[in-house]
Amino acid sequence: METYQSILVVVDPTTDEQKALRRAIELASRVVENAKNKVKVCAFLSIFDFSYEMTTILSTDERDVMRQSVINDKELWLKTIIASLKADIEIDCQVVWHNRPFEAIVERVINDDYDLVIKGTHQHDKLKSVVFTPTDWHILRKCPCPVLLVKDHEWPSNGNILAAINVGSDETEHHSLNNKITTEANQLANLIQANVHLVNSFPGTPVNIAIEIPEFNSTEYNDTMQKHHEQAMISHANQFGISVINTHVEEGLPETVIAHVATKIDAELVILGTVGRTGISAALIGNTAEHVIDQLNCDVLALKPEGYISPLQEQN
What we know:
Layout: E1 6-10, H1 19-35, E2 40-47, H2 50-53, H3 60-85, E3 91-97, H4 101-112, E4 116-120, E5 122-123, E6 130-131, H5 134-142, E7 147-150, E8 160-164, H6 172-192, E9 195-202, H7 207-212, H8 218-239, E10 247-251, H9 254-264, E11 269-273, H10 279-285, H11 288-293, E12 299-303, H12 311-315
Parallel strand pairs: 1-2, 1-4, 2-3, 4-7, 8-9, 8-11, 9-10, 11-12
Antiparallel strand pairs: 5-6, 7-12
């Protein structure tokens, strides 16, 4: 894929099994094979040990030496893992000392202009569901480039990619993001030989209206809403050459509908957009994308709208 010329892989320091790195190698290999373009892959690890900062009996220089020793050990460990994968793709590695991993990752993306961040997710042993860490959420909210969160599985040929869009909105930002998500889905599908499905949810009758206005016909309202969204979906699907058979329009909350359709079609990957809301607005309103992601048990690719600026860029 032409847009993925540089990939930053977030390394998991707790295991030798680096599923994000394996996914990056798979993706980069297919880009090279299809587009004949060189892809830069960097395995990135942010480490920190508070005890090294609290050692007051040591001088600043001595603490620096101790930190560098830890970094050197991790670099050696990481290079050993990279060598064991025997990838055809050239992989660089970088280990930094930083007390906030998500900031180290996002700053690296901003400074080196990466096209994609790939990070592995953790799975709850008993529930068999994906568990997202605070670092995951911070990256999703604040990283300016696409973020791919992966679990431990292969991308089979003829699998399904589910693109979550909002075709019922008249807002320019939503139209632009819909196009970006669908374009991304088509490009990835061509790269990994997968099928693209589109999903869109629409709200049912507001409860307060049904109660306050007894003569309000909720069935007619729902039918009208569904037809509006279905027609908009067909128009959007036709624009991108996607079969109407592969479109899904259902009533309900986005997080419920997207998770239901993803399970129904056994999606390997869900692509969605996130506005990257932070601070008080995120706490009070909540990000739809985050509610969706929390209910998915497959790989997730989160995209930002055009013109998005990371809060970490604004601070600089």
